[in-house]
Amino acid sequence: MEIRTLRYFLAVAREENMSSAAELLHVTQPTLSKQLKSLEEELGKKLFTRHSFSIKLTEEGILLRNRAEDLVRMADKIEQEFVSLDDINGGELYLGLAESYQLRYLAKSIKAFKESYPNLHYHITSGDTEQLSEKVDKGLLDFVVFVEQPDVRKYEYIEFPRADIWGLIIPENDPLAKKKAILLDDLIGLPLFCSDQAWNGDIKNWAGSRFSELQLEGSFRLSYNGSIFTMEGLGYLLTYKHLINTSKDSGLVFRPLSPKLENKIYIAWNRYQTFTPIAERFLSHIKESFS
């Protein structure tokens, strides 16, 4: 199974049309059809269901697409790493980021690092701990930012200089907006928005034995999406301070939880990772700047 064939497969899966994929790949349609037929024969499975004007993936095709995406990304990353070995002014850096206001420290570090390595190109992937762990474990990412303490058996890490503060996003005309802080009693009976990870982790620990009294209205991986639903009066968003615009004209306010709930965040890497030269230099830079 060749990487080129997997690229062909992914293009057809994306376009859902053989002609469009062939044009995108700059190959003839018969050549593309032949490659895909050979792939199906090699795997012994039908990957596509062909209709009059479109092509759909079978269940086996969906499985291959998920695996092929990782393989192609890995091949691209390996190629870029070898190209950058002799680049003394830069290279490729792959970062996976959780949602946090404290990322400003990372952004400042990258900005300072680029002054020494102007040809640095960095690639950002966003996600929760589960998503980012999977990618860094596969070697698709060099560094990840977690909002919970990394597993020391798998990762080494550095703690960010400051922590995130939990609170509630509230419509400015809501009675709760008049409070300076939000107590657990204030949340009972409210329709709440939160990420699944935080709801079953930080919020559950904070609420303790009364967690079952809280009502999760809906879960969001991105706080911004949750704030839109809050603006429309569908519920209240539990999130970090500074992630949502709560300026005077925003229509929303942030109130911290009481007792205070904070999250430390960490930049981590696989303890068995083999770094490229630029990643090694970046790690040294991060250790120095965060200290």
TrEMBL record:
Gene Ontology terms, MF aspect: DNA binding; DNA-binding transcription factor activity
InterPro entries per UniProt: HTH-type_LysR_regulators, LysR_HTH_N, LysR_subst-bd, WH-like_DNA-bd_sf, WH_DNA-bd_sf
Top-level division of the source organism's lineage: Bacteria
Assigned keywords, A-Z: DNA-binding, Transcription, Transcription regulation
Signal peptide stretch: none
Residue span(s) of domain HTH lysR-type: 1-58
GO cellular component, one term: cytosol
Classification via Pfam families: HTH_1, LysR_substrate
Recorded family membership: Belongs to the LysR transcriptional regulatory family.
Protein name, UniProt field: LysR family transcriptional regulator
Source organism per UniProt: Pseudobutyrivibrio ruminis
